[in-house]
Amino acid sequence: MLYSSIAALRASVTVTTIRRYRLALLWAIYFGVLFGSRHFIELKMVRHMVWQFPALMIGGFRLGKYLPACWRLNFERYDQLGLSGMVLFMATTSIWMIPLVIDLAVQIPFIDAIKFISLWLTGLVLSQSWQRAGDAVQAFFLISWAMMVVTIGMLYQETDIRLCSSYLTNEQADTGTGLIIIASMLVVIWFFRLFHRLHQQERSAVVAKEGRG
Hints:
Blueprint: H1 2-12, H2 15-36, H3 38-41, H4 45-63, H5 69-76, H6 83-95, H7 99-107, H8 109-132, H9 135-158, H10 169-212
Helix pairs in contact: 4-8, 4-10, 6-8, 6-9, 7-8, 9-10
């Protein structure tokens, strides 16, 4: 009786189920490490904005490929050409770069939890929107976002005013440099991948034409 029950249990546990539980465990550890180390990370402004913000959004973005197909189809109805997700990304990152909001996140745990959830969800939504958006839409939003981030970074670098009460002026300058580097790198990587893809398509078209000839 016992052996038959164990055999039935093993049969019911499919590979897909095991992968789901494993994935859930990994994401629980991921969030636990990020949230558990938030006091250490948020002691420095550069770690807070240049490390933690991208880590949260990248986590959500990576999880996007594991969403069920039905969820993706339902979201697609409200995300034509990826515009909804792109606008959400612009709005969310803009809000969390406001000095007053940064101070609130550092000082109030509830606001910090909202920051964690909103940035992670933004990355999750962006993973779906980015796939639907064409090159033109991606370029428009990426360049617009990069210009905004570079402007904020230059403001942090050049101002002598202490914008965030939780951080010193020299930390603002370091954070500004980090923001400029991140924005510039993302634009360069995107254009490099675009030109590489177009070059590959051109080569494939030439090979196909020669094959037909």
